[in-house]
Amino acid sequence: MKIGISCYPTYGGSGVVATELGKNLAMRGYEVHFISYALPYRLNEVHENIFFHEVKVPQYPLFEYPPYALALATKMADIALYEKLDLIHVHYAIPHALSANIARDMIKDSHPLKIITTLHGTDITLVGADPSFMRITRHSIEQSDAVTAVSQYLKNETIKTFQPRIDIEVIYNFIKEIPPLHNVCSALKHKFAPGGEPVLIHLSNFRPVKRVLDTIYIAQAVRRERPVRLVLIGDGPDRPIAEQKVRELGMEKEVIFLGKQEDIYSLLTIGDIFLMPSQSESFGLAALEAMCCGLPCITSDAGGLPELNQEGVSGYLAPVGDIPKMAGYVLQMINNPGLRKKLSQSAREHAITHFHSDKIIPQYINLYNRVLAR
Ligand code: GMT
User: Is residue 120 domain-shared with residue 266, that is, in the same domain?
Assistant: First the structure.
């Protein structure tokens, strides 16, 4: 089977899922063609079944807004025709699903092309629900041959917002590998927490929806009782205000900003507890990655997070913005190392049992086969 994959290549969950899915499919013998404006950030290995096609948008003085969706549609049609793609799997509805629709239309007399659309989160809850994009998002979803959502919550939101005339299947995010736990980067851990302080970790693209400031307030509340370190991985619009807040609170020694990083699995192993206090989260891939590195997670109870984070098994949940409750959970674990260790083991087991790629990827393959057999 030949599969096209389109996604945002930048630092973010939808691109990570698309890229890891493509890499896994290639390992299983499928030919995979990534189509995007840049090399996806985790597409960092060579494989005989993986190809990358860059979309270039010509600049022209008339184009105040360069028409990426059109250049993408043209590239998708070209690749589908010349490489004989069976299907194109797009991640994040806007604009990928629309571009795929246009591509399929352009080549329909010479080559059949099926479209699978995976909805990831803000393509439904924020961007797609905006009146400027609502009708085109519904249209793109309905014109797909199959649609998946990364949680039951996101499926429900999609139905509530768009009432699309197409079924939506839930296929959860997955973990690609199980890192060995003894591989802790101990030199790094010692550098960040020289006195053996517990290390809290947060990883995100620092958009307002992630509530990065809450992680700082949690660390501030915890340090009133116990010394602690907070390591922040990632970058984005809220980083400057987060840095400013840390200076205002005089916590420069306790809060470490690492910026964007590639080797997430190694970095996660230096942590003791993972924080995800998001305002909204359709699934929470970063928390899943943390769990499989043995980090209990303290998350908000927003969106699809309760489908991932199981209270008392993989960590704890609290209402959005409830800093005292989240800080209380951190202290509970810090003060009771036996509890933290037990949660560390059960979080990892939970991640591996329910969200391993061997369980999730076959669900996508099964969907591809069903769509192609229609
Ligand atoms: O919807 C977004 O914010 C974009 C997307 C991304 O590219 O970062 O994140 C979403 O997709 C991930 C992968 O499916 C999910 O694990 C994240 O929960 C989800 N983010 C939100 O819903 C905020």
Answer: no
